[in-house]
Design brief:
Elements: H1 2-32, E1 35-39, H2 50-65, E2 68-72, H3 79-88, E3 93-97, H4 102-111, E4 116-120, E5 129-134, H5 136-150, E6 155-160, H6 165-181, E7 186-191, H7 198-210, E8 215-219, H8 221-233, E9 237-242, E10 253-259, H9 261-273, E11 282-285, E12 292-294, H10 304-314
Parallel strand pairs: 1-2, 1-3, 3-4, 4-5, 5-11, 6-7, 6-8, 8-9, 9-10
Antiparallel strand pairs: 10-12
Helix pairs in contact: 2-9, 3-4, 5-6, 5-10, 7-8
Amino acid sequence: MRKSLLWGLLAVMTMLLAACGSASGQAESLKEQTSIGLVVTESGLGDDSFSDSAIRGLERARDELGILFDYREPEPEDLAASIDALVQNQHELIVGLGFNAQQPIEEMASKYPEQQFILVDGVSEKKNVTSITFKENEGSYLIGLIAGMRTKSNTVGFIGGQKVPLIENFEKGFTSGVKEVNPDAEVLVDYIDTFSDDKKGAATAQKQIKDGADFIFPTAGFAGVGALKKAQEKGIYAFGVDSDQFYIAEEAVVTSMLKRVDTALFDMAKQLDEEQPFTGEHIELGLQENGVGLAPIRVITLTAEQQDRLDQASGKGNNE
């Protein structure tokens, strides 16, 4: 009886030691696994836009390539400290999203010259910072074509989160598309100095609707979500940005201008996985590179002529 009990105790101890050894091995393996650190925009996760698109790209890298990732949602004044913390966690790549990340990314790039960084929506001269920008004007031009062709009031609206060159690029493309097909249309433009205040986005949309806009294009992060919901409430049309935002306001969002941050970051993860060197280059992505484009058109139906005009502009038409 005692002998049987002794053997049982020995068996249990052996199993526990084996389990501990296995867990230790898994932890060691996890520590050695390739990983990427990400600092998102001030809108944070759940913006149904820029930050969420970046996370989708890294989730794809995790699922398809086995590359882990970690992220931070800092306040603007804490960006540098958050990036520094990610460096200390020994991620092979550190990604900063948005033009506001440029200064802290460059500060950390100087502090850690052996660390590789990715800057999205800015261009850095640092040799250990790879810059990724998008030709927002090309995608916004397509949005403008639709608004210009379909407006009944001959008034459409643009809402920008902040008056900086990046957002002005959206505005220029949108206005150019509207005027290309409808020179008499009026384009209302408002910059609201926030990417996070959805109430301010809604109030600005309300003002533009009162002034006659029947299509609104907000490029303002989470603040733009408020504008989309207001458009639906008031029975007019709107366009999403960065990600497919149809599900935010299914009765209003005609299409969204896709800024394929997810694809760009997955490509960077793939480059890391294949051990290709990072050279601090500037990568610019537009329609031709599939860096920008449109989500499916819903809510309205374009005529054959209007669809052909859109296809020609997006490079899908017959160019012969």
